[in-house]
Amino acid sequence: MMLQYELVERVRGYDPTVDEDALNRAYVFSMKAHGSQMRASGDPYFSHPLEVAGILTEYRLDTASIVTGLLHDTVEDTVATIEEIEHLFGEEVARLVDGVTKLSQLELQSPSTRHAENFRKLLLAISEDIRVLLVKLADRIHNMRTLHHISDHEKRAWIARETMDIYVPLAERIGIQEIKEELEEMAFRVLYPDVAESIENRLEFLKEQGEDVVKDISEEVTRVLADADIDCWISGRTKRPVSIWRKMQRKNVEYEQLTDIIAFRVIVASVEDCYRALGVIHTQYRTIPGEFDDYISVPKLNGYQSLHTALIGPKMHRIEIQIRTTQMHEVAELGVAAHWQYKQGAALTEGKNYHWVRQLLDILENSNNPNEFLEHTKLEMFADEVFCFTPKGEIINLPQGATVIDFAYAVHSEVGDRCIGARINGKMAPLRTEIRNGDQVEILTSADGTPSPTWEQLVVTGKARARIRRYIRGERREEFTKLGRAMLERAFRNVGYSDDHEPSPSLLERFDVETMDEIVAMVGSGEVTVSDVIMALVPAEVLQQEADEFGEESPAWPNWRSSEIPIRGLTDGMAVHHAKCCHPLPGDKIVGILMPGEGVAIHTKDCETLESLANTPERWIDVGWDIGPAMLFSRIKLVVANKKGALGSLTTVIGQNQANINNLKITSRSEDFFEMLIDIEVHDADHRNEVIAALRATTGVASVYLDE
């Protein structure tokens, strides 16, 4: 274990102005606070914060960061408080410690929610000071280094998965390659031990078979560049097992099919030399098409710059080469820590100065709960990048697979909400079009444009998905409120309760809301049951009296199948919507099923899905049709003779029967017949049946039936 004076000497080695007194006091305070606490390894617990502080010194961080490393677990695991930290070490250290501290005292719904809430709090702290993340990463490094001391296999796997899903991408985002690689390797070995061992054995065999391959290639490339008067330093190594595994997953190939498992870095003096070296290497060796990336002209979000190319190199070895300057190399390895100078002020510490932090904050603003935020954040951090441009030439970074809608929301949330199409490289393109590297995208908007629920299936960025969900929630809220109010009014009538008076503060507190309307909407969405509200509002003695009098048929617990709620606006995505399993239409016998978070799904009464819901009668609602003038959709499947005029006959019959074709698709074609799907607009089930009967009577139609 590192001694007190050794820590001080480490910091003084790169910071002559170090506050030795603060370091010494933090060392003593942390050691006393943790006292006799022990880690799973059997070491004194204080060894952990000391090691974290030691890791932070490797990145030449300032005194406040080192002090935070020493104190980061004191509030969570000891009797120390943030107020005490602030009194002894100042507001800056207290803020940093609070940012790293988990919400261990917060009682939440589930471990997953608690995990998500902790991450939400961490992000908010990072947005205020990026040093919070540096301390957290150092904390995670030491925890992963000692993970093998934890006996519970499931706990080890959970920590490793969290590391892989959250902390590896975060380390990559701030560009600290060294931390990213170490965390990734350690998590990989825990999560996939057999795969890791297999790849390591194969790499060892390769090393034994061609021990001098890396050396020989390095010498030849150095000589080639020297002949062109380019001074350089070259290092080479086989790729890490986890990198090989990711490539196997990405390309869906076996290890034997990978040939570029050797990578080289060429370090030169200037940007001009980078491009000169690239030209010389491409002239000397055959390049592999599609394997070149210029991250110098278009840097990654974390500031990473380098030229990447793959080629058939010396002795016909397939290799990968990265070309960068010395400064670029420092940034590539150390990220934000390469820029860190303890004399610099808040300009560097403020996380909002980092584009990716602002993106995550946008997601946080539009997410409805911590779990949703965590889901969207993973989407945002885990994707390979695509670089595209606005009409003004501004660069937009998007994940692989991003669509026009993702681009629109990346420009601005309001642009995303109102987008109706786009021009990509001057040509019109629909919203579902996937953006490719180098595309120039112009978003077309309309003042009346609004997000569609279907957009959620077309986007890959967390920001876009969170914003779309937020809009849908707002649109659904009115529908949820109407439904919830109808359900509560029926229940209140049954128990003789009047809701004319203002709701009590205790009721609002129980459901963690500010108004009764929020409770009503929660009932309509299925988040809260009517029974929960009744129990909170109606005195227990009243409920018991009625239960004694009426038994199971007590009006206090209304028969959910006893009354009818008219339904309107059966639009998919609203609070009341068609079930896609049975496609109910007016005229069909129907039943409503309360779906948590979705409202009421309308099923036909003979729908097979209802069997799985027989044990939850409280979710069943008898509903009736309130038939309006609106047209409804129905899909039919036809087998038609393959002859001239057949399609014209079909459309004529449909039109004559006052129906409209919404969509038509030929699914199969042969010499004699072809099959097609037609979506038609009809008034109700009877109208649909009339159209089907007319089609069956049409010459050339072999069969017509509903596609369900």
Work out the helicity level. 40-55%
Q: Give the mean pLDDT.
A: 77
Main structural class = alpha+beta
Rough outline: globular
| Head-to-tail CA distance between termini | 69 Å
Classified in CATH, the superfamily of the largest domain is Hypothetical protein af1432
Low-confidence stretches: 103-110, 340-348, 550-565, 568-574
Strand content: 15-25%
How is the biggest beta sheet arranged?
Answer: 6 strands, mixed
Q: What's the number of structural domains?
A: 5
Q: According to CATH, what is the topology of the largest domain?
A: Hypothetical protein af1432
Query: Architecture of the largest domain, CATH level 2?
Result: Orthogonal Bundle
The number of helices is 29
What does this structure look like?
- There is one protein chain.
- The chain has 708 residues and is an alpha+beta fold.
- It folds into five domains: 4-190, Hypothetical protein af1432, CATH 1.10.3210.10; 212-334, Beta Polymerase, domain 2; 358-470, Ubiquitin-like (UB roll) (Roll), CATH 3.10.20; 473-625, no CATH class; 632-706, Alpha-Beta Plaits (2-Layer Sandwich), CATH 3.30.70.
- Helices cover 48% and strands 16% of the residues.
- The chain is built from 29 helices and 21 strands.
- A hairpin with a 2-residue loop joins strand 9 and strand 10.
- It is globular.
- The termini are far apart.
